[in-house]
Amino acid sequence: MLKLLASLVFLSSPFAAAAEPPLTLEDVSPGTIASFSFPPSAGKIAVVPFHQDTPPADLYFNAYILRAVEQLYAGYGLLGYDINSILTHDIQYHTFGVIPARRPPLTMCVAAMMEVILTAYDIYAKETGDYSVYEYLPKKSFEGLNVGDIKGHIWVNSKFNANGTADALINFGMGQRTVFEELKPGSFVNINRTTKTGHAVVFLNYINAAGEPQPAYNDTVVGFKYFSSQGRATAGDGGFDYRYAVFSKFGCPYMPYKRDCNVIYSIDQKMLNTGTMTSPKYWTHVMPTEDPAAGETVFRRNYFNGVTTDD
């Protein structure tokens, strides 16, 4: 009886499709895109009761990530995008020194995710008095590109099992996997497009075809609003800003906002990488093993080119 129940739970689950083989950008074609299926909204799933622990209220770091987004947009928004630039300004890493910006105030997307995290560190430490966040990883971890450096993972390296910011946080014991349909504002997403380009962003909310925010995933969702650095080098035309990502199967509907179309929906985390940063008290101290033979992450400039639909 238990085996039968387990089978029914699996077959009724929106994640039963996870058995499909993983995709790579080389697999992308009109045929494969058309075959991608979206899970039904929660209102249409036949729920089988089971016990699930409620996560602690303070488990996630989302509130500080969102405050970092607001602070960065207010102070450093739209100052320009440049693929070779890192951080809009020098960042003090508590008493351990400064993480220097390169060609500020311009910046690009993966550097934007690192700056969001470091800004959230600062907000959290000043508000709570807990500066131990700066002892969890050494300053060099945000400067180097080796397997033992979180920057090397945020910059994306499949050899490190790092396909996005979410993977980077998970690899260093600072995050948890969250599927797209369960994301909350302040989560992290790395996207791939049918144009064989990608982007690293902070998830803000689901959107419908008019770009209107949706409080949770439902049948009207065509994509999501995000924050990152993208666009042109000219101040006012690029840098920290917001975009409205639309999954490729929905085309590129008109919205009174800047869009990012051709985004690939997939349950494969290599194609749509999603997850959530946890609060410092829940960091596990799991760390990648240092391995000189693994080499350094090589930044893919053509892949992270900063171009979105309405730039």
Put the structure in a nutshell.
The chain has 311 residues and is of the alpha+beta class. The chain has helices at residues 2-12, 30-35, 62-76, 109-128, 133-136, 150-154, 165-171; strands at residues 91-92, 98-99, 175-177, 188-192, 198-207, 213-214, 223-231, 238-247, 259-263, 273-277.
How do the helices and strands line up, and which of them pair or pack?
Blueprint: H1 2-12, H2 30-35, H3 62-76, E1 91-92, E2 98-99, H4 109-128, H5 133-136, H6 150-154, H7 165-171, E3 175-177, E4 188-192, E5 198-207, E6 213-214, E7 223-231, E8 238-247, E9 259-263, E10 273-277
Parallel strand pairs: 8-9
Antiparallel strand pairs: 1-2, 3-10, 4-5, 4-10, 5-6, 5-7, 7-8
Helix pairs in contact: 3-4
Would you kindly provide a written description of the structure presented here, covering whatever features stand out?
It is a single chain. The protein is α+β, with helices and mostly antiparallel strands and 311 residues long. It has one domain (22-37, 58-294). Helix content is 22%, strand content 17%. The protein has seven helices and ten strands. It has helices at residues 2-12, 30-35, 62-76, 109-128, 133-136, 150-154, 165-171; strands spanning 91-92, 98-99, 175-177, 188-192, 198-207, 213-214, 223-231, 238-247, 259-263, 273-277. Strands 3, 4, 5, 6, 7, 8, 9 and 10 form an eight-stranded mixed sheet that branches. A two-stranded antiparallel sheet has the order 1-2. A hairpin with a 5-residue loop joins strand 5 and strand 6 (213-214). The chain starts with a helix and ends in a 34-residue tail after the last strand. Mean pLDDT is 89; it is low at 1-21 and 43-52.
